[in-house]
Amino acid sequence: MKSVPLERRGDYILKMYELEEDVCRQMLARCSFGRVAFGDAAERPTILPVNCLFSDGAVLFRAQAGSALDRLGRGRVVAFEADQVDLIAESGWSVLVRGTATHVRDPARIAALADTAVHPWAPGPRDRWIEIHAQQITGRIIRRHRVFGEVAPSVAPD
Fold this sequence. Notes:
The protein is mainly β and 158 residues long. Helix content is 14%, strand content 52%. A 6-stranded antiparallel beta barrel has the order 4-5-6-9-8-7.
């Protein structure tokens, strides 16, 4: 983990670390919810929540036929973000995936995906699988540490 300068806030110090790609992949593997960002038909920024999974280097989610998310499957460049925050501890992490979205077309793979725990929260049929082929995966984590005595110039991660 590469760290950036720390900041002191009262009895705490805050430090942000850039996550290595393999750590980002591990975090994505535990995610079941995230957001897909893309430009809509008028190229206005749009971000939509999705229930998802990360498998074989790709983010997968379901879309309703004809929806904005379904249209992404035609090879659109998108970004996907997953995160977790602790409001009390003022800490958390986020992982950003940049890549190209395509429809999953292989019937055997679609059948295997049907047995996963990805169940959209939104009502209505969502039988189109979209995958984002990761071309870049980055992440960061922010941690808050209690200060006991003087603060050293650097604090090692937990």
